Amino acid sequence: MKSLESILAAHPFFENLDPQYMALMTGCASNVRFEAGQFIHRQGEEANSFYIIRQGKVALEVCPPEKEPITVQTVSDGEILGWAWMVPPYHWQFDAQAIELTRAIVLDGRCLRTKCSEDHALGYELLSRLLPIIGQGMEATRMQLLDLYGTRG
Fold first, then answer.
1. pLDDT tens digit string along 33-89?
2. Which of 21, 44, 56, 86 lies at a C-alpha separation of 20 to 30 Å from 71?
3. For the domain that residue 145 is a member of, what is the CATH number?
4. Rounded to two decimals, what is the model's pTM?
């Protein structure tokens, strides 16, 4: 059985991360499991974690008032779920619901924020790794909304 540190170290998000920071990440990590249909988090709730999806699929949804939820992105094996733990006011922007049995590693956002405030180089390192993920998520959402409202050429 692989250790959390070896699993995290093999993930592209943590590629070439300083070993001392890798140890800090592992100290804030644990395994989690979500059944199909289970909500991982809800829009507006306090955001204090992010996830490395090891197996499964998670739908990111927005819920317009009095309408059905709209899936704006699906996250699956090997992808990162959640960046709101790093950006004040630390609230989720979407609902996240497991579409199928999902296994992940969760990293405690409070733990990481504390470590980042104590070591700004770590904070910069994590933020520089999260920014491309945030950008990809925004682009995926934009494309989904264009498809939904039929305005894409």
1. 999 999 999 999 999 999 999 999 999 998 878 888 888 889 999 999 998 999 899
2. 86
3. 2.60.120.10
4. 0.86
Question: What is the domain extent for residue 69?
Answer: 29-149
Structural domain count of the chain: 1
Integer Cα distance of 136 and 143 in angstroms: 11
Q: CA-to-CA distance for 51 and 57, rounded, in angstroms?
A: 12
CA distance 98 to 104: 11
Tell me if 128 sits within 8 A of 45, measured CB to CB: no
Task: Give me the amino acid identity at 62.
Answer: V
Residue 139 counted as domain residue: yes
- In the chain, DSSP finds a helix count (H) and a strand count (E) of 4, 8
Task: Tell me whether the omega of the peptide bond preceding residue 88 falls within 30 degrees of 0, making it cis.
Answer: no
